Amino acid sequence: LLGQILDQWFESEPLKATLATDAVIGAMASPHTPGSGYVLLHHVMGELEGRRGAWGYVAGGMGALSQAIACAAAARGAHIFTEKAVCHVLLGKDGRAQGVVLQDGTEVRSKLVLSNASPQITFLELTPQEELPKDFVQRIQQVDTRSPVTKINVAVDRLPSFLAAPNARDGRPLPHHQCSIHLNCEGTHLLHQAFTEATHGHPSSRPMIELCIPSALDPGLAPQGCHVVSLFTQYTPSVLAGGQPWDEQARNAYADTVFDCIEAYAPGFKASVIGRDILTPPDLERIFGLPGGNIFHGGMSLDQLYFARPAPPYSGYRSPIPGLYLCGSGAHPGGGVMGAAGRNAAQVALEDFRQL
């Protein structure tokens, strides 16, 4: 259990709760849930520019990372098509993947097909079901994709000033503005309470909030004097109690709860807001194709990791369809902005390609 791990190393409850947030990020779990300790490990493994366990902002926003990958691929001869939805994977008479068919009927032929869509979209929507083993299909259908995440993007006309560390007179960002700011994390019991509310179908009344201000380090993201604030919040259920929809009223009511919490730490925050974008679990699924709104394409619980991701014995990126590979977060080792699944899948695909 995460709590046992943190208790061995730390005494401060606010510090333990802040560290515990990385054990439940993107997971419908509490710090008391068995296996939550691994999720913490997953988020602190690796390094950034030689610093172990470090994270960083992408200059220009996260979209700049996608553009960098696209430019590197194009420089090596890749052709990239956007706004061209795939209808299904094209199979030959021998059952091998031979490319994809787009929704407009265009066939794109290839010897190998790599999908970084979720396992659910790849195998339940894009692959002919009669070509897949029934037990494999059942396993993919049973993947736990519950998501507690609602993402709120905010535009503000001034830098938030926190009671614990007021702004400087010149309004320039201070060191804490350039880090992740965790709110409602004074104790792990608060995280557990927020989780419990969501399991009963109710958005947390005191949600866990991870607040980042990327424009404090990258001024080009906002006009001078203004800032963009990224709020990663938990817990919100994918399905509300009583089958109520996540309509505009429900979205705004939850966002107001989040803003009220921030206001208690940084008076004046609500008055500084000039725009907000609220993405609940159903929104994350609809817009980004995340099953259930799960940012990892499936829970990072111990029963869905390693040899079981996405299903045994298909953890090695190959699928039941020869020539079709899974290279996204639903494959080993799971989610996170690290590219490990894609790199590993590419190596496996290249190995097979050389033998064709």
What general outline do the C-alpha atoms trace?
A: globular
* SS-derived structural category: alpha+beta
Helix content: 25-40%
- Count the domains: 2
Spans where pLDDT lies below 50 across 5 or more residues: none
SSE topology string = HHHEEHEEEEHHEEHEEHHEHEH
Let me know the average pLDDT.
93
Question: Notable features of this structure?
Answer:
3-stranded antiparallel beta sheet, 11 helices, 5-stranded antiparallel beta sheet, alpha+beta, 356 residues, single chain, FAD/NAD(P)-binding domain, 2 domains, 15% strand
How would you explain this protein's 3D organization?
The chain has helices at 2-9, 13-24, 36-44, 62-75, 119-125, 134-141, 188-199, 248-265, 269-272, 281-288, 340-353, and strands spanning 47-48, 51-52, 86-91, 97-102, 107-109, 113-115, 150-156, 181-183, 208-212, 227-234, 273-279, 324-326. By secondary structure, it is of the alpha+beta class. The protein folds into two domains: 86-144 and 291-354, 3-Layer(bba) Sandwich (FAD/NAD(P)-binding domain); 148-288, no CATH class. The strands form four sheets. It has a five-stranded antiparallel β-sheet with strand order 8-9-10-7-11. The chain has a three-stranded antiparallel β-sheet with strand order 3-4-5, with no helix packed on it. A hairpin with a 2-residue loop joins strand 1 (47-48) and strand 2 (51-52). The longest helix is centred in the C-terminal third of the chain and has 18 residues, at 248-265. The N and C termini lie far apart (47 Å). The mean pLDDT is 93.
In short:
By secondary structure, the chain is of the alpha+beta class. The protein is 32% helix and 15% strand.
